[in-house]
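Lecture 7, part B: from sequences to assemblies.

Below are the input chains for today's worked example.
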Amino acid sequence: MPLQPDPRSSAAALRARGARATPARLRILALLEAADRALSRHDIETALGPGLFDRVTLYRTLDRLVEAGLVLRSVDERRVSRFSAAAAAGAHESHAHFRCERCGRVFCLADVRPARPRLPAGFRGVRIDLNVRGLCRACTESDS
Amino acid sequence: MPLQPDPRSSAAALRARGARATPARLRILALLEAADRALSRHDIETALGPGLFDRVTLYRTLDRLVEAGLVLRSVDERRVSRFSAAAAAGAHESHAHFRCERCGRVFCLADVRPARPRLPAGFRGVRIDLNVRGLCRACTESDS
DNA sequence: TTCGCAGATGCAACTCGATTGCATCTGCGA
DNA sequence: TCGCAGATGCAATCGAGTTGCATCTGCGAA
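Predicted structure of the full complex, as structure tokens:
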């Protein structure tokens, strides 16, 4: 989890997974690795500068990064996909997010590792994710 | 959690929450209470008979039932909202679902009660939900 | 170093779940 | 039984995400 993401190691990670190291992928990966929360396509487009990459390119790039296992996807209450760097979040089978009900931002709870619950007979669980909803620090503080 | 949902008690529950007991609300509530899984708007429309209620009415009715606390909403991996009766699921602050990655169906794990995790300073958690993804029984059995 | 092409990108059109505006209808308290 | 706030239906619209197709380019091979 480097503070200054290294584009060379990102490029190597991409190539090791059979994906080309393109500007779009390196920029998006660096952005997600530096972020302290899960970003939507809209967040990413705004951060990189609107118009730098096409909307379709952003979606396809994110799909490819998820497929390569470098990025995790989750869907928020407002039906928007959000993305976080797998390296920063911890690429575990179980994962936890905090979703602020006021500002809509999503934070990774990297050190929370939810336990696998008992399932009904015949059901096979694979991945587990836990969502906590409430108010984030900024919204709690502006709540006085 | 009655096996045969009682429309009279549903009507009373609606009125107690300041909502009218209309045919759409009573039919949808009865359907959700009888279901063993969370239903999408499309599932509900199909079950009640296409054309019986307008799509907009279904969405607005479901919104109202969620607002009244009689129904819980969750969003699946495919960005579709799914609804389950709060009474059947257990209207707790924490809740768990199983989402089948093959058929897309969503099951309530009524007896699983995820623990509240530690949050970063300043964050206030309110509701918790746990999602387990994998294969449901039907899809596991057809997997041979 | 250059070359070729599979894979990546951009643009336009499209899909589909969900929402909004507005006219009409109705549950239910008075 | 009457009035009206709240509920419903219809049409238009929104917005996240996808698809088809033409063009471009990273990168392995020559």
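Note for the exam: The longest helix of chain B spans residues 55-67. Keep this in mind when comparing with the next example.
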